[in-house]
Amino acid sequence: NGFYRYGSLNLNASLTTKMYGIYSFRGENFKAIRHTMTPLIGVVYRPDLSSVHPEYFGTTQSDTLGKTSNYTVFDDQRNLGYGVPNGSEQGLLTLGLQNIVEAKRKKRNDTTDTFSNVNIIDAWNFNTSYDMLADTHQWDMLTMNVRMKLGKYVNFNTNTRSDFYGLDTDP
Q1: Which of 42, 47, 87, 170 has minimal CB crowding within 10 Å?
Q2: How does strand 123-131 pair with strand 11-16?
Q3: For residue range 97-140, what is the model confidence (pLDDT) as tens digits?
């Protein structure tokens, strides 16, 4: 109990670009569909700060078989969105891909042949990371989110997380 302060440190760099794919139509209502892809690759280094405040970290027995797990005094804050201090060194390679799909279509009830841009898929994103310094389970979860408008008043949004390692069925 009491007031504790911690700091965290990370160094990162990233590269990104945009790629466009366009498919043209010959019809009257649709002129083209454009797919915008934004790949991202980055590196992140987080040093082990447990030696700065060793009283913030500990190990506890987690089951009757003698397995142990690491903890920090800030673990109860994790669910509140505050985060926890760096307790181990990490060297991450981050990977991401953002997608947007748009259409150029003729305005409804318009006789002037003007076109407007309409988003078909507002976002279709993938993200993961690989910890080059971890001993096991180097791949982080693969996250995907999709966001789009369905009509004038309905927004569709879904998020998934996929584990590269599956379920641990050992007791």
Answers
A1: 170
A2: unpaired
A3: 999 999 988 777 666 777 788 889 999 999 999 999 988 889 99
- Six-digit token pair at 171? 């007791």
Residue 32 CA to residue 103 CA, distance in Å, equals 6
pTM of the complete model:
0.72
Closest CA relative to residue 102, chosen from 159, 45, 32, 151? 32
Residue 89 to residue 93: CA distance in whole angstroms: 13
Q: DSSP secondary structure string, 28-97?
A: SSEEEEEEEEEEEEEEEEE---TTT-GGGEEEEE-STT--EEEEETTGGGGGGT------S-EEEEEEEE
The SS3 assignment for 148 reads strand
Compute CA distances 54 → 48, 88, 149, whole Å. Answer: 11, 12, 49
